[in-house]
Design a protein that fits this description.
Elements: H1 15-35, H2 49-59, E1 125-126, H3 139-149, H4 154-158, E2 163-171, E3 177-184, H5 189-200, E4 208-210, E5 213-225
Parallel strand pairs: 1-5
Antiparallel strand pairs: 2-3, 2-5, 4-5
Amino acid sequence: MDIKKSKKASLEDKKFTYLLMGLCFVLSVCYVAFEWTEKEVAVYDVINDETFFEEEVDEIENTTQETPPPPPPPEVKAPEEIIIVENDEKVEEINIQSEDSQEDVEIAPPVEEKVEVEVEEDQTVFVIVETMPEFPGGQAELMKYLSNNVKYPVIAQENGIQGRVVCQFVVERDGSIANVEVVRSSNEASLDREAVRVIKSMPKWKPGKQRGKAVRVKYTVPVNFKLQ
C-alpha cells in the first residue's frame, strides 16, 4: 500500500528558500560585526595661556655674573742699601777722525788674480776614426822595421818553434805607443815577449784624427816568427 503525502505538507519545495534566507542573515551579521567600532571621546581642559605664562615669568629670577677681582700687583722689594762707587780710574782719550779730515787716503787698484783652469783631455780610445794612425813611411816601412828589429829567441830556434803573435796597442795624440798587450799568443812565452819588445821600441806614429783633432786610437799589428 503506497503512502500518499499532500503537496502542502511537503517541506522539500521550500528548502531552497530557507537556505537563501539563512545565508542572507549570516552575511548581514558578519557585515555588522566587521563595521562595528567603539569610538573614544577625549575631553581636554582649556588652560588660560596668559596666566600660565605670567606664572612662569614670575618664577624666573634675574641673575648677574660676578666678575672676580683683579690679582694684586707683585710686591717690589727695594734694595736695603744703595752703594755709590766713585770712579777715579783714568780713561785714555781716543781720537776719532771724521770722514771730513783733510788727509788723503790712497786706494790701491784691484789686483786681477789669474786663475788657471785645467782642461781635462778626453781619454776616449777610438777603434775607427776618419784618419787612422800611420807608421812613418806607411805599411811597407812598418813590415820592414819589424823584420829588421825582431830578434828570434834562441830557445825557440833550438826547439824549432814558429808562430804568430798578434799585439794590440794605443797610438796616443802625440804618436807615442802605449798599453801594448798580446791579444793572440803563439803559445810560446819567448815569442810573445819579443813581439811586445819590438812594438814598444817603435818610433812615434802619425796620430789618428777625428774631425781634424788628434785622438787616441787602438791599433793591432801581427808579428810573424819563421825559421829559414
